[in-house]
User: Which sequence fits this backbone?
């Protein structure tokens, strides 16, 4: 049986939220779009927090710090969040490299060409709007160096970042792919749908997957990660993915696509508000 992807009406929402103690939120397309909060979203999170839920923020964006996310949440009127509630792919990549590399080893972060540093034991590919052929060359030189194994790590595979009005810019996935093709090997991916980013949350908080909800706007990252990790998944329609896409997955015979179907959907997370009022 596939997941039903039912609209989460107030009565069901009360039960679903009641059975959860932690909610993980993707940010862009869920809490805000660009620099404007989704209408009703700050109030919804305030009620969730007042109801004793633990809120965490899980984002593939690698270009902002935990503190920057905490600041943006406050600026847009969301309940105050501590930086440790924020799990971005840059923070989690740093954590991964700290564990995977020997002490004193360095990483080449796609960001600047320089003489080869003998301490480099990893190439990390994140969002880089100044990506250039010279950096690709530098990354390949490290990855081909024969004297030591060099890890290849990507913050995420998002291939496109949507802008308002149907426009888009190429995402980090394009840069990861370029390095992978050059190096003829696959990168280890930190962000959603990789479960590594969820493991980071688990390592810092006492999380029971059966009592955790993942709320996201993308089927191929947020929902896939939530389903893979055994979480309850809610798709919100204020961002990238549509019910048409869900339908396509439901009608497909491909078993892998079943993991892209959420348990529930809402038009906006503000729809959860009635379930939180008594
Ligand atoms: Mg999103």
Assistant:
């Amino acid at each position: 049986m596939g997941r039903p992807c039912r609209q989460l009406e107030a009565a069901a929402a009360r039960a679903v939220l009641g059975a959860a103690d932690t909610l993980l939120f993707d940010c862009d397309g869920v809490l805000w779009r660009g620099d404007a909060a989704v209408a009703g979203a700050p109030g919804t999170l305030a009620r969730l927090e007042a109801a004793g839920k633990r809120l965490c923020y899980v984002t593939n964006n690698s270009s902002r710090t935990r503190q920057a996310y905490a600041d943006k949440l406050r600026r847009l009127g969301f309940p105050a969040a501590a930086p440790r509630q924020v799990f971005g792919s840059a923070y989690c990549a740093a954590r991964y490299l700290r564990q995977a590399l020997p002490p004193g080893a360095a990483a080449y972060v796609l960001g600047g060409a320089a003489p080869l540093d003998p301490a480099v034991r990893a190439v990390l590919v994140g969002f880089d709007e100044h990506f250039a052929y010279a950096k690709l060359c530098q990354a390949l030189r490290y990855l081909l160096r024969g004297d030591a194994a060099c890890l290849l790590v990507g913050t995420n595979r998002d291939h496109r970042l949507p802008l308002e009005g149907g426009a888009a810019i190429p995402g980090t996935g394009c840069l990861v792919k370029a390095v992978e093709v050059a190096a003829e090997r696959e990168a280890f991916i930190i962000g959603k749908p990789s479960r590594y980013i969820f493991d980071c949350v688990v390592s810092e908080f006492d999380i029971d997957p059966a009592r955790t909800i993942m709320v996201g706007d993308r089927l191929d990252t947020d929902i896939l990660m939530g389903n893979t990790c055994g979480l309850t998944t809610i798709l919100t329609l204020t961002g990238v993915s549509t019910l048409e896409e869900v339908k396509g997955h439901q009608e497909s015979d491909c078993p892998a696509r079943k993991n892209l179907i959420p348990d529930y959907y809402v038009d906006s997370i503000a729809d959860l508000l009635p379930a939180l009022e008594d």
In short: The mean pLDDT is 94. Residues 37 and 76 are 6 Å apart (CA to CA). Residues 26, 28-30, 217-218, 239 surround magnesium ion (CB under 6 Å).
